[in-house]
Amino acid sequence: MRTFAAPVWPRPLVVALMALVSSAATAAETNLALGRFEPSAAGEPFFGTDSALIEGDLLPSARLTLDWAHNPLVLNDKQSGDTIAAVVRNQAFLNFGASLAISHRLALAIDLPVALYQDGPKQPAGTTTLPTPRGAHLGDIRLGARLQFYRATSGLFTLGAAAFVAAPLGSSSSSSGAFASDGQFRGRVELLASGMADRFLWTLALGPDLRRTQRFLGVEQGTMVRVGGGAGVLLLADRSLQVGPELAAAFTPNDISRYNTNLELLLGARLQVLGFEGGLGVGPGLSSGIGTPDYRVVATLGYAPRAEPTPPTAMDTDADGILDPDDACPTARGSTDPDPAKHGCPKPVDQDGDGIADTVDACPQVPGEASAEPAKHGCPKPSDKDKDSVTDDVDACVDIPGVASSDPKQHGCPAPSDQDSDGIVDEQDACPQVAGAPNADAKKHGCPAAQVVGKQIVILDQVRFETNSDRIKVESETTLQAILGAVQGLPTAAHLRVEGHTDNQGSAKHNRNLSERRAKSVVAWLVAHGVDASRLNARGFGPDRPLASNKTPAGRQVNRRVEIHIVE
């Protein structure tokens, strides 16, 4: 078992102290209001800590609280730690409490404690001892008030204060009153903070407990700093069951020691049904201070009707007639607006009266119109002389209707002509009336690879062969397809002469033979692709008909060619 004691001295000193207390101390020096637990106001959600939250108008509450402390005053041997004497073994108080919530800002409370039962060990005959507590005794009646300063609309945080004064009713000089009252007025002031979020609630209290200064068994007693706190979780569908811990601490700031420091933990549950509530809390003492028991049991039974939460009075900081919770600009006077984001805000300045506020108007002094582009928003719409939907500021052809173009130089200008619809405008097309393909050579750009010109099928890209061979290279497939298309466009009665030509490298006989074989290879390809063989005639002219000088590589390349002529 833990012991929570007054100061611990060697046994000879204890005997001497007891004699001194009996023979020399006055009643006021030996009497002490030992109880350190004071119940919260009736209707409060925690056993020993008040809440800053006040709900209801003229809402009454009443409660009976039974508080039983075991071994709140024990003397131990300083050296061995053995118990010398349990001065107060048991002390049970019944508190009669009532409160009235005047409004959601102010509540009043009263509490009358009665020591129902007290006991301590009897001392041997002939020895001088401390008083042995016996019997019932009226405690110090407490009158108090709580004030709520601030409450967030969400309910997550509420700030308030409390003040209490206690006055003695019974005689503290009797054995029954020796540890129930010190016979003096005392008071308490606390700063309170509380909150509630869905099923979780909490409270904190901090402030001085104002008592007379006295030394009891050599330990200074008097004004103490009290700290209390509690947390709870609401269970069941109607949230009628609350469970959670509470912690209470107090110390004498002028002479802090283990013997005038109190610390207790209480674990409890409370149930409320039809306005009535009952609760039970049990917990240990966690320090050795005077008045801290081994453990404490608290039971309550009371009437605490629930009140519909009254929202705090909303403020109107800027005094514009719109309460802060609804005011989008609570610190600047404004006016009503159906848009919640603007309600209560000052009307924006609009110098040009175009309905676009100067803060976002790119042309604040010239009436304009809305635009998705910030640089044009609120500015006049640019003119469009030619009515082609391309504004003059970006129209490359202001006076001529045109079309949009990604090229700034063509944007707003008429679309360029493309007679053969090959995607190459006539201006750049070397063959504007015949569909062709792009070519790096401007003279061939937009022209087909092969086309009928007069009595000849003009071939732009040469049919290429393997070196010194009549085998056609694969890369010439596109050119051959173009030749085939040109042939198929001729009348079926038209006959064609396919001519092969070479440069002058090598013997003339060899070149004539090679050129003829190459002409026959082209004829064979056309026949294989559906052209009637009777329409085709192959001839090899070797180097006899050059188009360019054979003195240069470029000239010789021009001379190595296949030509197709229409002979009938």
- Please state the CA-atom Rg, rounded to the nearest Å: 55 Å
The name of the CATH architecture of the largest domain is Beta Barrel
Counted beta strands: 20
CATH topology of the largest domain: Porin
Largest sheet: 12 strands, antiparallel, barrel
CATH superfamily of the largest domain: monomeric porin ompg
How does the helix and strand content classify structurally?
mainly beta
Count of domains: 2
Strand order in space, largest sheet:
1-2-3-5-6-7-8-11-12-13-14-15
Strand content is: 25-35%
Which residues form runs of ≥5 with pLDDT under 50?
A: 1-29, 124-128
Silhouette: elongated
Average pLDDT, to the nearest integer?
83
Top-tier CATH class of the largest domain: Mainly Beta
Terminal CA distance reads 131 Å
How would you spell out the order of helices and strands? Answer: HHEEEEEEEEEEEEEEEEEHEHEHE
Q: What's the tally of helices? A: 5
How much helix is in the residues? 10-25%
